[in-house]
Design goal:
Distance between the termini: 92 Å
Strand content: under 5%
Order of helices and strands: HHHEEHHHHHHHHHHHHH
Radius of gyration: 36 Å
Largest sheet: 2 strands, antiparallel
Number of helices: 16
Structural class: mainly alpha
Shape: globular
């Protein structure tokens, strides 16, 4: 036998045709137990049913607060809006007067002065509380037991009742030479001031009181915002030779842009709605130098028993606050774009 004859069987074996596909056994579907369907569809259906069955759970937890808001906030707001177009006559039935109440508010004696005083107080308290709050936040930023104690002490004016705050500042604003603040002014060579008893200084005195009360609240919000600023940016700016003021200006403040917007809106609303401090310290005096819109509404609605006129003034103040909030948000969106 030659070598070619010995190699022929190996060649035949290597080139043998493979079995056809149709000759191979095809595995059939795996039978499922009776009463079961496709596992994927069933699992998705069960998960969807569970999600659909729990959509009301958050609303269940929010229901008590929503009921309180509805009863004590939204229903009175709707009633005030209705009363602003009526002459309120207890036990006799209200009478529809249209826009006469709004005309009475806008043309009342001292409305322009009260509106101007409100704007001055809002601007002064907003700017002062935000500036002082940012300065306190920058000084108290960091970790430490002593800083925690100082923050708690600085936050006390926010939690103290406003009546106590007003009485405290009334004592400090005592107009005689032996008053607390006048004694401090005497140490530096200034004469005694009338403060809230002087028409020239009464409005500024109220601004100082509002800044003292509002700055700690702004400080806590600023501290929360500073915690989110990247510390690496501070280190990079320090390596580049930036001073402390430059790091605050170019790193901290840009990182607090959203916080500044929120605080500006809150502080502006707080300034426009100022009432308790003015009512307890000056009640609009002396000679109307501290009359604001809220005290004017109070006098028109309750002291003069013109509840419809007072409701109209409250609606006007709400619209002014709403317009301010919308303007700030539109400005922020345009700035971000």
């Amino acid at each position: 036998m030659t070598s070619a004859d010995r190699a022929e069987p190996a060649t035949r074996t290597a080139t043998a045709p493979a079995p056809r596909t149709e000759d191979r056994p095809v595995p059939g579907p795996v039978p499922l137990p009776a009463g079961t369907g496709a596992p994927g569809r069933a699992g998705g259906r069960r998960a969807g049913n569970r999600r659909a069955g729990r959509w009301w759970t958050p609303w269940l937890f929010l229901a008590p607060a929503l009921v309180l808001f509805l009863y004590f906030k939204f229903i009175p707001m709707a009633s005030a809006l209705t009363m602003s177009f009526q002459e309120v006559r207890p036990y006799l039935g209200n009478q529809w007067v249209g826009g006469a109440n709004y005309t009475a508010v806008l043309t009342s004696d001292g409305f322009r002065e009260a509106a101007w005083h409100t704007v001055v107080l809002a601007v002064g308290q907003t700017a002062g509380s935000m500036a002082l709050g940012l300065a306190l936040a920058l000084l108290m930023e960091g970790q430490g037991r002593r800083l925690g104690f100082v923050r708690s002490a600085a936050f006390l004016p926010v939690v103290v009742p406003i009546a106590v705050v007003a009485e405290l500042w009334r004592i400090m604003y005592h107009p005689t030479g032996d008053g607390m603040l006048n004694s401090l002014l005497g140490l530096v060579g200034f004469g005694p001031s009338g403060f809230i008893n002087d028409p020239d200084t009464s409005l500024v005195s109220l601004v100082l009181t509002g800044v003292w009360r509002g700055a700690p609240y702004d400080m806590m919000i600023f501290l929360a915002g500073l915690a989110g600023v990247d510390r690496g940016l501070y280190e990079a700016a320090k390596v580049d030779g930036a001073s402390r003021f430059q790091r605050v200006r170019h790193v901290a403040i840009p990182g607090l842009r959203s916080v500044l917007t929120i605080l500006f809106v809150l502080a502006a609303i707080r300034g426009l709605r100022v009432f308790t401090e003015v009512f307890l310290l000056t009640n609009g005096g002396p000679d109307g130098s501290t009359e604001v819109v809220m005290t004017l509404i109070y006098k028109l609605g309750l002291e003069q028993n013109k509840l419809g006129v007072g409701a109209a003034g409250a609606v006007l103040l709400f619209l002014a606050t709403l317009v301010l909030t919308l303007c700030v948000h539109l400005f922020r969106r345009r700035d971000d774009a």
